Amino acid sequence: MWLEVIYRPTTLFSLKQSRATSSGAKSLLTPSPYAAKMALLNAIITYDSLQLAIDNFDLIKELDMRFSLPGRLVVNNCFLKIQKEPHSETKKEHPEINFQSTVGFREYVYFAGDIKIAVIIRNEKAKDLLKQWLPRINYFGKKGCFFQFVKFKDSTTLGKEYSELLDDRFTNLSPGLIVEMDDFDETVTFDNVNTYSPAKTKRKKKFYILPIKIERANKNFTSYVSI
What is the DSSP-derived secondary structure letter of residue 211? Predict the structure, then answer.
């Protein structure tokens, strides 16, 4: 059984790929499993308690997710002024300089419709938890990338508009765009994802096939449509 969750984007979306640098930050085209699970943990902590998030961390860590994008999305290419720490040599010569103004590349995604996130429901406890807290999520990715919960839908199977997970043997190749996204590693603990802990997070790379293709592209934007 799948639980489909429909969200309506109310602003542009941007989520830096984990391999991107601060100067060249290409965006993912959809919230990653890692970002969605962190948003869910944030909602539980914000509206209930830290202890409830810790108690349900293993359940959230093991959630299996798929993503569905609207029929059209456009990625805008921007160059922005950003503040960056100076190089070590500059720090030695000018210790009074903490940050330097420079230029960074950013991408922002416009969704021409709602996005859907589907989660496999393995037991009633997981379903109750998700139905209580997923509507509380109001942003994915970069802060300020707001989404509005619309509704739930129970489904036994998912439609072709959903992403597919590419297995290690590449046996399920379907038409679409292959993207790499982060998920929680099997060994990750709550301490690893706690931003107030010195422990480093543990991410697992997964490849998804998004059923979309490039419609048009130039130096300013790239337009995608569903296949």
Answer: S
